[in-house]
């Protein structure tokens, strides 16, 4: 019998309790805006159909899912709701990132529906990075907080101790990935909901164990379901995550961004770029305004504004935000006019290179790949190709469409990471099986 840590969740805010028409995505990497949060499908290790439905407030469910992976490897998917900056996708007004040493209070309430069948976990995923923002794989620590699990699944790494942090009993698991640490807190007895969970106490516990560097930044907080088998019917009925700095925190806004440029691309898009702002604790995001209205936010210094009208002039400004929510003055404006008719105007897609970081254990392997724009113009799509010598078979990938025919393999960008500014990087990864030691092949990166 599942147990709950609290009979009732803390009261949700008015914005969370408000309901709207249902919105569904069946795109493996689809996202749905949910006020201060974003819901992500995040299917990264399977091609089976998955559909996520948002019903308003912070409520969402996994309505189509019938996965069938073995539980001795990575899960098929992690549909989740998040606040902060996930791989450069930032939610508005999150209060993140915050330096770990500056955290004052971090609390969360979460209520879930958990089917009686399947193999899955119900877990938070907190990402710690050495810098205030990153568009790729964070390089610090991944903190997972498992409220429950079914089907015999276990965290990455090995069980290394226990903890009574946040007033509850946990089994602690630790492990080392290729470029980041993982520490997992598994709630003894399990739960379907938590109210006012003291997340900071768990972060402090991880610092004390040497798994988290207090000079690093909490950039993203996610809550969802890692699924190996089944999954349909998993749901969140209410969620809240709040992080704030210690008293006497940062009150100084960043400087205004400079060098804003706006360039038309096709008939319905304008590409923008600017020079970074500066801040005493670090810029966390940039808000892009079109004619005074917010067009979007990004952690980087480039942005593509889409869905525009042909032959129309648009004027933009950009403001910088820091972790404490301080906002800069607006940049100088820049104006661009979209192209008047169909067809692709001349543009340079630039050049790129790719590099692999390999984690091989004999019968299987994972790869963390980096694509770098080495040209002077923005990449509008990229493809990495290579040939294996035999005995290596790709079984799944993330942040790219990875396909293999014989020994030939290609990885193509997804819609959300096709744009790479000059000198910038993006990341993808994949896993596979091997009949011998895996090798790093010669890579070819092409633009477009």
How are the SSEs placed, and which strands pair?
Elements: H1 14-17, E1 19-25, E2 31-34, E3 37-40, E4 51-56, E5 59-64, E6 66-68, E7 80-86, E8 89-90, E9 98-99, E10 103-113, E11 119-129, E12 141-150, E13 158-163, E14 170-176, E15 181-187, E16 193-198, H2 199-208, E17 217-231, E18 235-245, E19 258-265, E20 269-275, E21 283-290, E22 293-298, E23 302-305, E24 313-322, E25 334-337, E26 352-360, E27 364-373, E28 379-380, E29 382-387, E30 392-398, E31 401-405, E32 408-412, E33 419-420, E34 425-434, E35 444-447
Parallel strand pairs: 12-15
Antiparallel strand pairs: 1-4, 2-3, 3-7, 4-5, 5-18, 6-17, 7-8, 7-17, 9-17, 10-16, 10-18, 11-12, 11-17, 13-14, 14-15, 19-20, 20-23, 21-22, 21-24, 24-25, 26-27, 27-34, 28-33, 29-32, 29-35, 30-34, 31-32
């Amino acid at each position: 019998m599942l147990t709950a840590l609290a009979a009732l969740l803390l009261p949700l805010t008015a914005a969370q309790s408000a309901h709207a028409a249902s919105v569904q995505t069946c795109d493996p990497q689809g996202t749905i805006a949910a006020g201060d949060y974003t819901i992500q499908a995040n299917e990264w290790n399977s091609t089976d159909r998955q559909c996520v439905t948002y019903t308003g407030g912070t409520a969402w469910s996994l309505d189509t899912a019938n996965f069938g992976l073995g539980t001795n490897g990575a899960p098929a998917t992690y549909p989740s709701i998040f606040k902060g900056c996930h791989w450069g996708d930032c939610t508005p007004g999150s209060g993140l990132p915050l330096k770990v040493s500056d955290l004052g209070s971090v609390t969360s309430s979460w209520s879930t529906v958990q089917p009686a069948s399947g193999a899955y976990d119900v877990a938070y995923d907190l990402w710690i990075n050495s810098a205030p923002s990153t568009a790729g794989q964070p390089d610090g620590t991944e903190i997972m907080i498992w409220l429950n699990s079914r089907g015999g699944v276990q965290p990455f790494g090995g069980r290394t101790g226990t903890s009574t942090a946040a007033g509850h009993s946990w089994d602690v698991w630790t492990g080392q990935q290729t470029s980041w640490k993982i520490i997992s807190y598994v709630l003894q007895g399990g739960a379907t909901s938590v109210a006012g969970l003291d997340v900071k106490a768990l972060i402090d516990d991880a610092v004390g164990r040497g798994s988290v560097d207090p000079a690093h930044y909490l950039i993203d907080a996610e809550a969802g379901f890692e699924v190996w088998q089944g999954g349909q019917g998993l749901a969140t009925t209410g969620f809240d995550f709040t992080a704030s700095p210690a008293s006497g925190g940062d009150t100084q806004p960043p400087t205004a961004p400079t060098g804003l440029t706006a360039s038309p691309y096709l008939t319905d898009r304008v590409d923008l770029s600017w020079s970074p702002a500066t801040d005493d604790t670090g810029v966390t995001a940039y808000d892009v305004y079109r004619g005074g209205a917010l067009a979007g936010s990004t952690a980087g210094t480039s942005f593509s504004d889409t869905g525009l009208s042909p032959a129309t002039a648009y004027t933009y400004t950009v403001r910088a935000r820091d972790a404490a929510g301080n906002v800069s003055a607006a940049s100088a404006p820049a104006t661009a006019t979209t192209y008047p008719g169909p067809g692709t105007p001349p543009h340079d897609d630039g050049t790129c290179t790719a590099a692999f970081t390999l984690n091989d254990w004999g019968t299987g392997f994972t790869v963390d790949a980096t694509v770098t724009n080495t040209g002077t113009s923005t990449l509008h799509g990229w493809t990495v190709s290579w040939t294996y010598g035999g005995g290596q078979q790709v079984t799944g990938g993330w942040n790219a469409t990875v396909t293999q025919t014989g020994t030939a393999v290609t990885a193509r960008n997804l819609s959300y990471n096709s744009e790479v500014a000059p000198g910038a990087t993006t990341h993808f990864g994949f896993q596979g099986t091997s009949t011998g030691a895996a090798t790093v092949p010669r890579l070819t990166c092409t633009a477009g």
